[in-house]
Amino acid sequence: MLSRRLFDIQVDDEFYTIPASVSSLSFDSPPVKDNAILSVMTPNSKRNLFLDDDDDSGLGMEDHFTSSLPKFSKRQRVDDDNSRCSKRPKVCSDIKAVVTKLEENDDFIADGSRLHTLPTVTGKHADLKSITSQTLTDVLNGDYDDVISDYKIIDCRYPYEFEGGHIRGAENMYLHETILTLLRQPTKDKQIIVFHCEFSSERGPKMLRFLRSKDRDLNKENYPSLNFPEIYLLDGGYKSFFNEQPNRCDPVSYRPMLHSDHSEDLRHFRVKSNSWTFEEKRRFARKVMQFRTVIQLVITNSALINL
User: Are 256 and 198 within 8 A, CB to CB?
Assistant: First the structure.
C-alpha cells in the first residue's frame, strides 16, 4: 500500500496543496509475480504508481519496483514522458508561429490573424499603433465599412472636458473599471477601438495599455486570442482632431483639461482616476506576499523532510 501526505495551506481564501514528499510502504501481503502486477495494472495506473524522476517520493521507490518491470515497460514509460510536450503539437506550433510572425512584422494585429486595417503613423508611443485625424474621419465617413464590422471611439478625458466638446459618437471612459466593461460586451470579428485623450500623450495610451493587459489576462488560456486585437491611438488627441474636423465634434467646442473654470473638477477627477492605480498596487503587493509565503512554506517543509 502506498500513501502520500499533502500539506493544504490557506492564504487569503486560496488553498495551496503542497506535496510533502513523505510516503509509506506496506508489504503485509505476500509477494506477487511480475506478470500478475502487469495483468492488474493499466498503463495509466503504472505511471501514477511509479513516479517520474522529478516526483521523487524520498524513499527510493524506483529501487523497489521498477527493476522488476520488463525492459519494454521501462521504454514505454520513457517514451510516454518524452511525448508529453508533444500531445498538442498543433497548438504549440501555432503559438510559436504567431510569436515569430509578430516579432518579424509588427504590421500584424495583436493576435497575428491579419494585418492592420487602418494606415498608421509613427506617434509619440512607439509601442502603440497611431492613426491620424483624417484616417479617423474616413472611418466615420464609412470608407472602411467593407473591412471593419464595428468601431468604438474611447475618449479618456475627464467628464467636464468631454461635455465641453467631443468627437461625435465617442464614449467617455476615464476610469479603469469603466474600461473593463468593454471586455464584458459581445465581440465582433474585425472590430476596432480608437483611444484618445486631449493630446493622446498620457491618459489615452495608459487606458489602451490597460485594456490590452486585461484582455491578455482574460484570454491567457487561449493565447494569442484577444477580444480586441486591433486597437489604435488617435495621434494628437482631441485637440488635433478638433482643429482639423470641428464639424465632427459635438458640441463644436474644445475645453482643455487645465481650464481655469474647472480647477476643482480637475482635482476631483484626478483623485478618482488615481484611486484604481493605488488599489491595483496594493493588490499586487498582497499577491507577491502570498506567493512568498507559499514558497517559504515549501522550503521549510522540504528542509524538515530532509532532516
Answer: yes
Q: What is the pLDDT of residues 91-150, one digit of tens each?
A: 445 778 878 888 888 899 999 999 999 999 999 999 999 999 999 999 999 999 999 999
Residues sharing a CB contact under 8 Å with residue 36, sequence separation 6 or more, in sequence order = none
The Cα–Cα gap between 166 and 169 comes to 8
What tens digit of pLDDT does each residue of 135-189 get?
999 999 999 999 999 999 999 999 999 999 999 999 999 999 999 999 999 999 9
Please state whether the peptide bond connecting residue 224 to the residue before it is cis, i.e. omega within 30 degrees of 0. Answer: yes
Rounded to whole angstroms, the Cα distance separating 249 from 261 reads: 21
The side-by-side arrangement of strands in the sheet containing 171-172 is 130-131, 231-234, 191-196, 150-155, 171-172
Q: What is the amino acid identity at position 136? A: L
At residue 198, what is the residue type?
E
Comparing 187-196, 200-209, 291-300, the range with the smallest average pLDDT is: 291-300
166-167/191-196 β-pairing: unpaired
Residues with a catalytic annotation lie at: 197
Asked if pLDDT for residue 248 goes beyond 50, the answer is: yes
pTM score > 0.70 for this model?
no
Distances (CA, A) of 46 to 73, 85, 175, 252, 284: 10, 19, 55, 75, 42
Q: What is the DSSP track for 6-38?
A: EEEEEETTEEEEEEEEEEEE---SPP--HHHHH
Q: Which three cell numbers stand for residue 233?
A: 491611438
Strands (DSSP E) contained in 168-243 are 171-172, 191-196, 231-234
